[in-house]
Amino acid sequence: MATAVYPGSFDPVTKGHLDIIKRAAKINDHLIVAVLINSAKHPLFTVEERVAMLQECCKNIPNVTVEGFDGLTVEFAKKRHASVMVRGLRAVTDFENEIQLAQTNHALKIQAALFVPCSCPGGTTQKIPSYYFLSKNSLIWSFGTISDLKA
User: Fold this and answer.
1) Three-class DSSP category at 118
2) pTM of the model
3) Up-side HSE of residue 113: CA atoms within 13 Å toward CB?
4) CA-to-CA distance for 104 and 74, rounded, in angstroms?
């Protein structure tokens, strides 16, 4: 087994993210949840808030650590001696983007990409995945404004 990195903005943290963390932690020695600091985006929560939320959510998973980072994900992974990059998939369009990233990362010495599809309620016999298209934009649309979500 290996050290894996699961990078993302996690803004906000969703049950889909937590599902991927739990599943990836089961098959890796160490999973680092890497919270991206992206100055080009306007996050709902600060990186410190996102790291704290994830640490709280992952406190009972002993092989998971959470860190904020700035810069290229592949450089972060190399510094942590990670050989696996974990990526969540919601739809075919996610796969198209992720496979390109995986091929680039492989050229930069990340040995493997672990693509984790969203979970299905009640096993694979269900047709609609439980965390299928939950995104920041859908949360804001559902609840109104960003300030409503932070409350």
Assistant:
1) coil
2) 0.73
3) 21
4) 9
| Side chain identity at residue 30, one-letter code | H
> Residues 56-66, buried b or exposed e (16+ Cβ, 10 A)?
ebbeebebbbb
DSSP calls for 47-114: HHHHHHHHHHHTTT-TTEEEEEE-S-HHHHHHHTT--EEEEEESSHHHHHHHHHHHHHHHHTT--EEE
Find all residues with CB under 8 Å of 63, minimum gap 6, and list them. 25, 28, 29, 30, 31
The rounded distance, in Å, linking the Cα atoms of 115 and 85 is 8
> How many whole angstroms separate alpha carbon 118 and alpha carbon 127?
12
Cα–Cα nearest to 111, from 87, 84, 88, 90: 84
E-assigned strand segments in 9-52:
30-36
Label the pairing between strands 64-69 and 30-36.
Answer: parallel
Q: What is the pLDDT of residue 138?
A: 56
Are 3 and 110 in contact by the 8 Å Cβ rule? The answer is no
- Rounded Cα distance between 15 and 53, Å, is 12
Q: How confident is the model at residue 102 (pLDDT cuts 50, 70, 90)?
A: low
